[in-house]
Amino acid sequence: MVDLILFFIPSALIIIGALIVVFAKNPVHNAMGLVMTLVSIAIIYITLNATFVAMVQMLVYAGAVMTLFLFVIMMIGVDKKEQSSESIKGQTFLVSGVFLILISILGYVAISSEFKWDLWFEAVEFAVEGTPQLIAGTLFTAWIFPFEIISILLIVATAAAIALAYDSKRKKNDV
Amino acid sequence: MFEVTTDWYLTLSAILFSIGFFGMMIRKNALIMFMCIELMLNAVNLTFISASKHFGQIDGQIAVFFVLVVAAAEVVVGLAIIVSIFRKQSSASVDVLNVSRG
Q1: Residue B95 distance to chain A (closest CA, Å)
Q2: Minimal C-alpha gap between A60 and chain B (Å)
Q3: B56–A128 C-beta distance less than 8 A
Q4: Which numeric CATH code is attached to A1-78?
Q5: Class of the domain covering B28-89
Q6: pLDDT digits (tens, 9 = 90+) for B57-77
Q7: Which of A32, A49, A53, A152 should we substitute to test contact with B (largest number of B Cβ atoms within 10 Å)?
Q8: Among A44-48, A113-117, B2-6, B84-88, which range has the highest average pLDDT?
Q9: pTM for the complete prediction?
Q10: pLDDT of residue A175
Q11: Domain coordinates in residue numbering, chain A
Q12: Which of A68, A105, B37, B56 is least enclosed, having the fewest CB within 10 Å?
């Protein structure tokens, strides 16, 4: 029973938050909907024994990334009206049609297989707890090469962000 | 009576991914499109974590870390691009961006 509650309440919040992200008009509301989704996903992670990933999700996504989003929303301004005219004719209608077809295929597969997907293997009986020790032990042995690559990616992204946001023209005019 | 199995998490993840995809297609504000990309990435992360539980392997959770780092880097660069575009065009709508040169 507790399992069901811990699944359904966060998943309802996830879907409501995602719908707010898609349909809200004010960008700040969209960002808050995204925060709701991310925090609820962190709760789902805890129920899936991934405690450390849940904490990282809260800190990095719901904390750092969303702060970045809100900063940019503040810079760009929230009162900008979004264009409702469609540059491609019937764009929303077409996308809605494709989306409905995809959703109905998904629903058909789910219902016809009685919500039992063929996952090739049965779920294991034992539980793997995603503790920092276990994650670090695997990350720094088997996954060390991707780890190094990702550190290079972060350096490049930081340099790229500085280079892109640096306004050389304004500096010349102001000083 | 009911037991929460991996299938349920996969279904939730599929729904979340679809909502993100739908928003990506219909919205024109570049910021909102970025948020929809975040939704899709989170749907994939949820799949990884539920597979990690299903198979009893820790590697799925490590893959989530890499997705997280790539998402953070992507957001940083993408928002910098949006800010620099906004300086020139004073709009964050993707419909205005119909030229490749700056």
Answers
A1: 7
A2: 8
A3: yes
A4: 1.20.120.1200
A5: mainly alpha
A6: 899 999 999 999 999 999 999
A7: A53
A8: A44-48
A9: 0.87
A10: 47
A11: 1-78, 132-175
A12: A105
